[in-house]
Specification:
heterodimer; A: 317 residues; mainly alpha; 2 domains; B: 236 residues; two-stranded antiparallel sheet; 59% helix; elongated
Chain lengths: 317, 236
């Protein structure tokens, strides 16, 4: 069949399909069974004509028109099903734990780096008075000398609902930096982990000089374990991404990077809801003076435990 | 299936395994549509901010700092609500997308599920920062929301780009026909001298391959007019 004949013979079917489809989209409830069957029949014809036009008359007006109609028909008549095992539940039960387990080695490395940074920072804060001023600022040090922790002002002047969102956003920013730092061959992730380790250690070191480390521990024990856990987990995802950028593997580098990037995204997505919970705990539970240390510590350990248990998931045998 | 696995990105299998190439919208086009949408959201946010500021000023004694969370909640509802409401009600189009000619579709070209449209808009705030790099790196130009929702954005072809010819020189294949159609379609955009030159060359070519195709009835002094008459050119 030559092109002109093809377009002349089949043209009326395409026009009829375009007309009926527009009508069906405008008034879907007015569509009866016969009209729907007719539309489906024409859709099938349009698809077959499209396949023919792409093969024999590529780039022609008929091919362009059929491509448009085939796409409009597919979009108008086919609705993507929501697979029962997909969606958010599938993500948190399958995809996130898979991605989390895949980066276990990197997590161990990141934890070790954080611990070394914290030990160094503690030593620095405990023996160098200047370090305290440069890390916490002169006002906080003045407060410590008067027996006050700077954390009191963080949550006492603004409502918990506001401070919770601010804290959650701040934590997410740190975690995002660690995660995105993987793109710099992992150096950004290493920097964020080491810096946070040093800062945390130094803060405890400084407060221990004023015999207030216990008070600080009481403030952070409810949210600290999960907060540090989340930052380290997201940084480990960034580190893994950085490793695939630098270290060659058996497969093509592009595939490796793509796979690591998808898994890093899954880890980040899985951590995000925990940041919201963390912000609420940090703004409401941590500063509550009436809650005993044991309750806060139990909550802190439970939160981290729950996160790790859900993140590790149930490996398929 | 081996051949299909080598198909370009965005090729999906429709009914009866007919390959369908999705005209994927690239990062720049999507950014343009988003810019239009955010202009509208910006106006809404401005109105909301002024209203909140006025309310906070007049009712500060009763509500104090609680206005701030209400304001932030409103901001989120405005940004998320605008995109989600438009995409749900039009099945994948916002005002910006309509203007540029874009549409959200499922990964197989089908109509996306409602849940997919809701999910893809949840992470819009994150996508403001990471969306463009992700789209540039991804062969399917998906941002984070698209990946979570299982959607892609396509640039719907316009009808105005199509032209139908009633007659063709015998023996011509797709390439030659596409060339003639392109000339007839874009002739008005060419400079007159170039238009005449190309039309003359096309006419000579047709006279060589199919001498009887152009008869005296349709022949005119202007080569382009002759081509249009001979082929029964009409815009769609």
């Amino acid at each position: 069949m030559d092109y002109a004949r093809f377009a002349r013979l089949r043209g009326p079917i395409w026009e009829s399909f375009a007309r009926d489809l527009a009508e069906a989209k405008a008034r879907p409830k007015a569509l009866d069974y016969e009209a729907l069957e007719n539309l489906a029949f024409h859709y099938r014809q349009v698809l077959h004509d499209h396949a023919l036009a792409v093969t024999r008359y590529p780039g022609t007006a008929a091919a362009k028109r059929l491509a448009r109609l085939a796409l409009a028909g597919t979009n108008g008549l086919v609705r993507a099903p929501t697979p029962p095992n997909r969606g958010l539940r599938h993500f948190f039960v399958r995809r996130f734990p898979e991605a989390f387990r895949a980066q276990a080695k990197h997590l161990i490395a990141v934890v070790a780096l954080f611990a070394v940074g914290a030990a160094f920072g503690f030593r620095l804060g405990a023996v160098q008075p200047g370090a305290g001023i440069s890390i916490l600022g002169p006002e906080s040090i003045e407060g410590l000398e008067q027996g006050r922790l700077w954390t009191e002002s963080l949550v006492s002047v603004i409502p918990p609902s506001v401070s919770a969102s601010t804290i959650a956003r701040n934590n997410m920013s740190v975690a995002l930096m660690g995660w995105a730092g993987g793109a710099l061959a992992g150096l950004g992730s290493v920097y964020v982990v080491a810096l946070n380790g040093v800062l945390l250690g130094a803060v405890f070191g400084v407060t221990s000089r004023y015999a207030m480390a216990g008070l600080l521990l009481e403030f952070v024990v409810a949210h600290g374990p999960l907060e540090i856990g989340l930052i380290l987990v997201t940084a480990a995802a960034g580190l893994r991404l950085g490793q695939t950028l630098v270290v060659a593997s058996d497969g093509p580098r592009r595939e490796g990077v793509t796979s690591a990037a998808v898994q890093a995204l899954a880890v980040l997505g899985g951590c995000l809801p925990w940041f919201v919970l963390l912000g609420i705990v940090e703004a409401t539970v941590s500063p509550a003076p009436t809650l005993p240390f044991v309750v806060k510590a139990t909550l802190g350990v439970s939160l981290l435990g729950a996160f790790l248990a859900l993140a590790w998931g149930r490996p398929e045998v | 299936m081996e051949g299909f696995s080598q198909a370009p990105a965005g090729t999906v299998l429709a009914l009866d395994n007919v390959p369908l190439q999705l005209p994927l919208a690239r990062a720049a086009t999507r950014a343009l549509a988003a810019f239009v949408d955010y202009l509208i959201v910006g106006v809404l946010v401005l109105i909301w901010s002024v209203a909140c500021a006025a309310a906070a000023f007049s009712l500060r004694d009763s509500f104090g700092l609680w206005f701030l969370p209400v304001y932030l909640l409103g901001l989120f509802a405005m940004e998320y609500g605008y995109f989600a409401a438009w995409e749900l009600s039009t099945r994948g189009r916002t005002l910006g997308k309509m203007l540029i000619g874009l549409q959200v579709v499922a990964a197989d070209g089908a109509q996306p599920a409602l849940s997919a449209l809701l999910v893809r808009n949840l992470v819009r705030s994150i996508d403001i920062f990471v969306g463009v790099p992700l789209m540039v790196l991804d062969p399917l130009s998906r941002r984070l929301g698209d990946r979570l929702g299982g959607t892609v954005v396509v640039a719907m072809p316009r009808e105005a780009d199509e032209v139908m010819l009633e007659r063709m020189p015998s023996g011509w294949g797709g390439r030659e026909i596409a060339l003639l159609e392109a000339l007839l379609m874009r002739a008005e955009e060419l400079r007159p001298a170039r238009r005449s030159e190309l039309s003359e060359r096309m006419l000579n070519w047709i006279d060589r391959v199919d001498p009887g195709f152009i008869n005296d009835e349709v022949r005119s002094r202007d080569a382009l007019t002759t081509l249009r008459r001979a082929t029964g050119f009409a815009r769609a």
